[in-house]
Fold each of these.
Amino acid sequence: MKPEDHVIAEEPYYEPVGDEIAVFEAAYAKGLPILLKGPTGCGKTRFMEYMAWRLKRALITVSCHDDLTSSDLVGRFLVKGGETVWVDGPLARAVRAGGICYLDEIVEARKDTTVVIHPLADDRRVLPMEKLGELLAAPDTFCLAISYNPGYQSVLKDLKLSTRQRFVALELTYPDAALEQKIVAQEARIDAEQARQLVRFAHMTRNLKGQGLDEGASTRLLVHAGKLIAAGIAPVTACRSAIAEALTDDPEMLAAVNELSSSLF
Ligand code: ADP
């Protein structure tokens, strides 16, 4: 795909939860890289889409995983029709296009992979392309953003200090109840009362975090349940399928979470 294919033409629906838009814009204007912290499903990806649209930049997103190598990001030589050609990876494409590169769940990537972003994430703003023998300078419009979920408390999965200290951090949390209700109603196309109940249910599950659940229901899961409700599924069933089953496989926990939704709906 060409970078222009990643330009977001229509304004994505995004409700700000704090001053994240202003801080992002200021960091972008000063060429500082951005770290989004927050639990999965709290709106980080939507926020990036919104900012890319607002700043009129191409958005290139990479979902990081433990097999991700630096070549996957930077590029590699490939044999095509008997010839060896260089193919840019997504990070190099974003740098060349002066777009926004969003590395989602950066801690999933191998530590040696993370190191390739260091020269891009400080004053140098360059991408060393060792195999090509090139140093790619990032234009002013280029922006590097990464996300990380501090909830997965694990020494193995923690972001290296030398990496995180290069970034301006923005913490995105779940929106407050009234705002989350508005988002769920809008995204799932359900009425305000149904959305309010789903948010109440979410708060109950969030209180179980650390007491049998690793995470409570995220905004994303509420939107999923809401969409099932909008499609005619009974709320208790929707909560079970879209939320409880997504949160745990433990039969006792499942029963407890299902009981909570039965008490509400
Ligand atoms: P993350 O990237 O943090 O895992 P997403 O950005 O994919 O989460 O958010 C999941 C869903 O929740 C979105 O698709 C959207 O429907 C909804 N959502 C969460 N926060 C917001 C917000 N502030 N404004 C609009 N929609 C939101």
Amino acid sequence: MKRLEDKIREEGQALSEHVLKVDAFLNHQVDPVLMQDIGKAFAERFADLDIDRIVTLESSGIAPAMMTALEMNVPFVFARKRKSLTLQDDLVEADVYSFTKQETNRISLSRRFVKPGERILVIDDFLANGEAALGLTELVESAGATVAGIGIVIEKSFQPGREKLLARGYRVESLARISKLEAGHISFVEAVR
Ligand code: 5GP
């Protein structure tokens, strides 16, 4: 997605060869017009699928997932990283190791909002080692639903997440695919579209 790649080039910061900071438009400040375009791009790429619901992970997945849900006219739900007093009953849970925070979070989702037999589109902000996306697929499948596709805003293609998801048979669509991070330069995998 050209607009996203331009934004990453202009406002993204390679903190190291492994970590990209995009808190100017995705992880802290959020660019709503870009999110709207992201929602349209995901809706287009997954238009052939009959999606019942979108599932994402708080907090940075919420903005792109919500805009995609609006475009596809389906509900969306975000998995929680922390237990809430009001969210205790009938949960499905999975452990996710966070690449950026270097800690394990138990993520959870209420069975009230993902029903058996539903076809789910999983959306997340980043794909690195695939832990977060795999945790989300585990939640969806524990609830008896099916993962129809996985939509990623920024994929770091030099890390193994994509291969892991493909090896398990999931369809993955990433709007920006980064092949290399260097100080002052960010390279992308394929020609923009
Ligand atoms: P994974 O679980 O695939 O290893 O990593 C995905 C999760 O880690 C994302 O949900 C995202 O929050 C975070 N993450 C991984 N790599 C990066 C990165 O380079 N930059 C930022 N901002 N977040 C990242």
